[in-house]
């Protein structure tokens, strides 16, 4: 039996394959493994922004209704375990051990047939194997960056396909317009399977609706299905239900949009597939959902902090608007780290509308942009002052000291990897981990 370390090491070895659009390799791998995806009842979620939150919200409401759930999430904040959830908890190291031999033996067999399995394909199939073994009542499967050629698009007959807000990200792979990206995302639609569409630019929504019509899919727009009367506490209704006021667990007004999308998907599950989720279960699920690193509010030495994974222009606009609507203490300092493949200047120009000072930090990721280059872009974006730091700890210390003196707020953003590191540094990561050979693995969940 392999160890968690070898599970991770063997997965990491698949990174050398790079990104290869198309489903030939993963279908060959699934054939070797007896097609675990065909034994699962799945909700398939794609989109640019909000899809992770929508998955977490669907999962939480279904669990509150008494269903056993599984969820595949992407990316992780700290450790690979966060990509595989069973009944709301990240998979343990021991559980990952149990499927490692079966998975990698099959990877070796298809390699002999000429199929090179990518890192994300390996992750996806690991999830499908794990979930087949767990036999949940419903699986919530989050797509990666794509849709049509995404590894998760091996599902033949999902219970419902969900597409969250479409924005401009991964343009080198998906296209440079909302319509082009929506066409790729709409590639997850399957003939006759119901579709839920989140709020998004009208051109993107029309693209998805048109594809749904051509494929005979019942189309429901979340913004038409859910009516929000009040945000604090959250009061909403649908044609299907009228839950009591909700003390919603997640901060940021943009999350209300995600609630609407998730609740619409749950209503489709109930109406079309016989699940029963009461209004009380909806309330309890939304009040107890855990989805860290998304407009998460903390304090450090008396200074208010916001940790957010915003890393593309749409995400930065949502963060900017949430900061304004939350009336946080000003002035605002940003601690930022970005991957080099992002439109860093566009992000920073958006954030400079609410922030004056910036500290640039490196990511613990091979794709990290040099902090000195981030500082150059901060200056171009209009930050009054910008400094490069050698670590997140150094950046946080400097920003918190400045904000304490100025009676302001610190915002950490630019990458989900940075958000995870910040939560660990601040002692706010929701699951307990232990360090092994400079890698982080889950010892147990809180």
The fraction of residues assigned to DSSP E strands is: 15-25%
Low-confidence stretches: 435-446
Rg, nearest Å: 21 Å
Read across the widest sheet, the strand sequence of neighbours is 4-3-2-5-1-6-7-8
Number of helices: 16
Short description:
With 446 residues, this protein is an alpha/beta fold. The chain has helices at 4-13, 24-32, 51-64, 93-112, 119-134, 171-174, 178-185, 202-214, 222-225, 254-273, 279-288, 313-326, 344-351, 371-381, 392-406, 416-425; strands spanning 42-46, 69-72, 84-86, 89-90, 138-142, 160-163, 195-197, 219-221, 226-231, 234-238, 296-300, 303-307, 332-336, 357-360, 385-388, 409-413, 432-436, 439-444. A hairpin with a 2-residue loop joins strand 17 and strand 18 (439-444).
Structure in words:
By secondary structure, the chain is of the alpha/beta class. It has helices spanning 4-13, 24-32, 51-64, 93-112, 119-134, 171-174, 178-185, 202-214, 222-225, 254-273, 279-288, 313-326, 344-351, 371-381, 392-406, 416-425; strands at residues 42-46, 69-72, 84-86, 89-90, 138-142, 160-163, 195-197, 219-221, 226-231, 234-238, 296-300, 303-307, 332-336, 357-360, 385-388, 409-413, 432-436, 439-444. An 8-stranded mixed sheet has the order 4-3-2-5-1-6-7-8, with helices on both faces. A 6-stranded mixed sheet has the order 11-12-16-13-14-15, sandwiched between helices. It is globular. The two termini are 27 Å apart. The relative contact order is 0.12. Residues 435-446 have low confidence and may be disordered.
